[in-house]
Amino acid sequence: MPRRRDEMVPEAEFRSYYGQPIVKKPIWHEPHMPTYLYLGGLSGAASVMAVAARLSGADRLARASQMIAFGGGAAGAGFLVAELGRPERFLNMLRVFKVTSPMSVGSWTLAAHGGLTSVGAASAVTGVLPVVGDAATLASGVTGALMATYTAVLLADTAVPAWHEAMRELPFLFAGSATASAGAMAMLTTPRRLAGPARAAAVTGAAVETAAGALMERRLGMLAEPYRTGRAGRLMRASRALTVGGGLLAAVAGRSRTLTALSAAAITAGALCTRFGVLEAGRVSAADPKYTVVPQRDRLTARLGGR
Amino acid sequence: MDETPTRRMGFFTDTSVCIGCKACEVACKEWNDVPDDGFVFRATSYDNTGALGADTWRHVAFIEQDGRWLMSSDVCKHCTNAACLDVCPTGALFRTEFDTVVVQSDICNGCGYCVPACPYGVIDRRERDGRAWKCTMCYDRLRGGLEPACAKACPTTSIQFGPLDELRERAQERVERLHAEGRTDARLYGESPDDGVGGTGAFFLLLDEPETYGLPPDPVVTTRDLGEMWRWAGVAAFGLAGAVAACFLRRS
C-alpha cells in the first residue's frame, strides 16, 4: 500500500500525531512550585547548617540558620498548599505513607521538618525547654538533608523527558543550590566576623550547583536542548551567571557589608532562576513529542538491533 | 460483592475495524457524566477532540494517509505497573478488584503529580474542580456485571472488553490473520507483559508505528528507576551534610 511517511511530521527524523505532545506537561504553577523548590531547599540546608554550627559552638550562626530553616519551611509549605487543586484537602497528603510516591515521602518529610524547625525556633526564641529545642534542631539536620534533595526525585520520577533523564544530576544541582542559598541567607543575617562558615557554604554550594548543571547539560544530549533554548535557556544562563558571580563574591564578602548583600542577592536570585528554569525546561520537553519519541526510538533500535 | 476472585479485565482496541464514528466518546461522556471538553476546530483532521484529558476519556484519532485512513480509539491503558497510581500521594488512585486503575474523586486533592507521571499523557487535572480524572473502565458498570459504555456502544467491535488473557489470545489470532492477508504492518501495542509498564490492561492492534497515533513507542513506568533516583539523592544528601560540616571544621 503506497503511503507517504512524512505527512504529519514536523521534522524528518521522527513521527507524531500532528505534532501533538505525547506526555502531559506538568501542571504545577509559577511562582508556587519553583518558589517552594527554592524555599524547601533553603530550609533544609539551613537546618543542616544549624546542626553543624551548634556542634562546633558557632551559636550566633546556629541561631540565624535555625530561623532561616523555620521561615523557609513555613513559607514553602504555604506555597505548596496553594498549589493544590483542592487546597482544603491538603491534610490528605498525610492520609497514607507511600514509598513509591516521592510526593508522599516529601509531604511527610516536610511535615516532620516543619514541626522540628518550629519547635527548635520557638525554644530558641522563648528559652523554654532548651533540651527539647536542641533535640529538635539536631533531628532537623536529618530531615533537612532530605528536604534539600528529595525534590530532585520528585521531578525525576515523572515521564517528563528532561527531568527523568536528569535523575543523577538533579539531586546535586538542588543540593548545591540549597547549600548556597542557606549560606547566602545565613551570612546576610549574621555579623560578618562570625559568618565565615556561612560564606564557605555559599562558595561550596555555588560551585557544586554550577558543576552539576554543566554536567547535566553535557550528559543529557538532545534532552539538554530544553535547558538551553527559549525562556528556560535564558533562566538557566541567568542562574549560572548569578550563581558563579554570587559564589565568587561570597569568597570576599567578609570584607564589607555591601559585598555580603550583593553576593547573597545574586546567589538567591540564581537559585530561584535554577528552579524556574528547570520547571520550564520540563514543560518544554513534555510539550514537544520529539523529546518523547526520539529517545524512545533510539532505545528500541538499540535493543532490537534495528527495525 | 461476591467473594470469588475476579479476573483481570481489559480492553482490546482493534483499530483495523474502527470507522471513526466516535460512538465510544459519546457513550463514555453520557455514562460517566464527563463535562464538555470544548468545541475546537483543529483543522488537521476529523479529530476535534484532540487528546485524552480530564474531560476526554475516549479519544478517536484520525490519521489521513495516502491510500488509507487510520482511526483509533485511545483510552487509559490501565497499566500493570501504573505510574499514576505509584506516585499518587493521597491514595486517591487505587487498583480495583478487576485490576483496573481508578481515581477516588472524594480523596484526590489535586496535587497534579499523576499528570506528568503518566507515560501516555492520559490523566489530567480538571481545572474547574481541581481534581484529576481519567477513564475508570466504567468501574460502576463492571461492578454491576455490565461491560464499559464505550465497548457496549462500539458498532464494529473495534473496542472489545473481557478477561485480559482471553483478549490477548484473540488479539494474537487477529494479528496473525491480518498478516496472512498481507497486512503486514498490523502489530499489537501494549499486549506484552515484558514491556516498560508490565503490559497494559487496555491494549491495541495498530496499523502503523505507535507514535503516528500519538502513543509513545517504548513507554516505561517512571517508578522503575525510583531506587536509582533515591540512591543519587542519598549521595547528594550525605554530600551536602559533609560539605556543610567541612565549612565549619575549617573554622576551628
Automatic annotation (TrEMBL), chain B:
Looking up Pfam families in the UniProt record yields: Fer4_11, Fer4_4
Is-annotated flag, keyword Membrane?
yes
Binding-site positions, [4Fe-4S] cluster 4? C88, C108, C111, C114
Name this polypeptide is given: 4Fe-4S dicluster domain-containing protein
Cross-referenced InterPro entries: 4Fe4S_Fe-S-bd, 4Fe4S_Fe_S_CS, FDH_Electron_Transfer_Unit, Formate_DH_Fe-S_su
Q: Which residues form the 4Fe-4S ferredoxin-type domain?
A: 9-37, 67-98, 99-128
| PROSITE patterns cross-referenced by the UniProt entry | 4FE4S_FER_1, 4FE4S_FER_2
Q: Name the positions where [4Fe-4S] cluster 1 binds.
A: C18, C21, C24, C154
Task: Give the molecular function GO annotations.
Answer: 4 iron, 4 sulfur cluster binding; metal ion binding
Q: Where in the cell is it found?
A: Cell envelope
Q: Which cofactor does it need?
A: [4Fe-4S] cluster
